[in-house]
Automatic annotation (TrEMBL):
Keyword Metal-binding belongs to the record: yes
Record key words, sorted: 2Fe-2S, Iron, Iron-sulfur, Metal-binding
InterPro entries named in the record: Rieske_2Fe-2S, Rieske_2Fe-2S_sf
Residue ranges of domain Rieske in the record: 15-106
Pfam families found in the cross-reference section: Rieske
PROSITE patterns the record matches: RIESKE (PS51296)
Top-level taxon: Bacteria
The protein's name in its UniProt record: Ferredoxin
Molecular-function annotations in GO: 2 iron, 2 sulfur cluster binding; metal ion binding; monooxygenase activity; oxidoreductase activity, acting on paired donors, with incorporation or reduction of molecular oxygen
Amino acid sequence: MTVLHIGEINDVEDGHALVVPPEQTGHDQAIAVFRQGEEFFAVDDVCTHLGASLGKEGRRSCADGVVTCWLHKGTFDVRTGEAVNYPARGRLGVHEVELRGGEIWLSVR
Ligand code: FES
């Protein structure tokens, strides 16, 4: 398992994401780390419908534990990665996030 420091808590607005590219993690795709209040959750950053980035920069796409894809409005549970509403389907890969002081650490599964 790869564990890396990816940023600072105060750099991510509530409902927004920090997208970590595969070159940084060694994972086969980008990972979106969403802030939900004081908690952070990490899922694969590729919508299971047509592959849009769920953590697209500048978009507030996570609310009440649900991530909404900007492209066709499919939704996913940010904690489990499960698809909630069509046209999202299947499940996103999930990863662990640990907060250490003001730092965000990602464990890639
Ligand atoms: S690409 Fe995400 S819902 Fe269509």
